[in-house]
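Limitations
The structure tokens in this dataset are predictions for the assembled complex, not deposited experimental models. Users should treat interface geometry with appropriate caution, especially where small molecules or nucleic acid strands are included. An illustrative entry is reproduced here so readers can see what is and is not provided.
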Amino acid sequence: KNEVEQSPQNLTAQEGEFITINCSYSVGISALHWLQQHPGGGIVSLFMLSSGKKKHGRLIATINIQEKHSSLHITASHPRDSAVYICAVAGGGADGLTFGKGTHLIIQP
Amino acid sequence: NAGVTQTPKFQVLKTGQSMTLQCAQDMNHNSMYWYRQDPGMGLRLIYYSASEGTTDKGEVPNGYNVSRLNKREFSLRLESAAPSQTSVYFCASKQGVYQPQHFGDGTRLSIL
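Predicted assembly:
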């Protein structure tokens, strides 16, 4: 069973700061997902990646397969980025995801 | 485009009661999933259906049953609810192996 660890568990920052959330996993994967969950509960997929780096607006996700590690970066953070960010890994096939516990991010104005 | 629709959004049950959580997707996805989310823990997989006509157990299947009624619908049944099943339940679907999952808005279930 894959173990997915996220850090930090909680992060409070000021608007405009550069944010980094880390994720490590224990067993090789087919893909890693970054998800966002706002208060009220809806879960949205931000990135799915199996190598390298992806960028969408102010969000950047990287993965190092050899190190079994991924990072999610937010540039020029804004209060609307406040949410829980969840890392999840896929083993392959149609099997479900294995999730980290999430990072609760608060961006203060 | 509704995506993944879960009903009900909220439910309170008494211990021992039964109920079925409904999930439907309109994206013609092959695979569907049921997860539960508890405070301080990551989401955990209860059951999944790789394709119409198949279902498989996930990490925490005890106390639950599922039915893949057709390609669109995947229901989760609690036959005899227990307080330990108080949770937020999420349904998700995806088209293929290397595709992201799309999540419903969740069902908040409390069992007294």
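Some entries come with short summary sentences. For this one: Chain A has a mean pLDDT of 94.
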